[in-house]
Amino acid sequence: MRGFIGAIPEREHVPREPAPLSRTQQASFLRGVELYNACAWWDAHEAWEEVWIDLKAEARPSDETRVMQGLIQCAALLFNHRRGTTRGVRNQWTKLQPKLEGWTSAWGVDVPTLLDRIRPFAEDADACERPYVDVGMPMLEDEA
Fold it and tell me: How many other CB atoms are there within 10 angstroms of residue 132's CB atom?
């Protein structure tokens, strides 16, 4: 399907970070990162969904709840890719891009690098054959 994967427009990256998570939320978030890095994408999705529900209950700004939802959808995209669900991969890519675009980081995640790592799996949606190499969650402290 030509033309499906469009380039994310280059934007000037003004540092943008959501407000910190509570101690409990941070623990669930980091557990989700561990699961994501272990390629347990469904379980990561579940851990982050708890945080997302909490953020919504706190009435956090919608862009902050949406960035958490975008991270959840990255895990869902990889889960669908592993299952060979072309439509699921495409749907998740379409949904997650607008939620993550413009963020430089979110709770320690290097968001532009994450999008760069996820894009090849979206581009491979027809075949779902791309090996799961370099799919770990890019954390900002990893660059230090």
Answer: 12
Residues 83-100 have a mean pLDDT of 98
Q: What residue ranges do the domains of the chain occupy?
A: 23-143
Q: What is the largest CA-CA distance in the chain?
A: 45
Sign of the alpha-carbon dihedral angle for 13, 138, 6, 46: negative
φ/ψ bin of 107: left (φ > 0), alpha (ψ from -120 to 50), beta (otherwise): left
Place of tokens 């980091």: 30
Does residue 4 register a pLDDT over 70? no
Question: What is the pLDDT at residue 144?
Answer: 41
d(CA 14, CA 21): 21
Residue 5 predicted with pLDDT over 80: no
CATH topology of domain 23-143: Hyaluronidase domain-like (1.10.3450)
Do residues 88 and 121 touch, judged by C-beta distance below 8 A? no
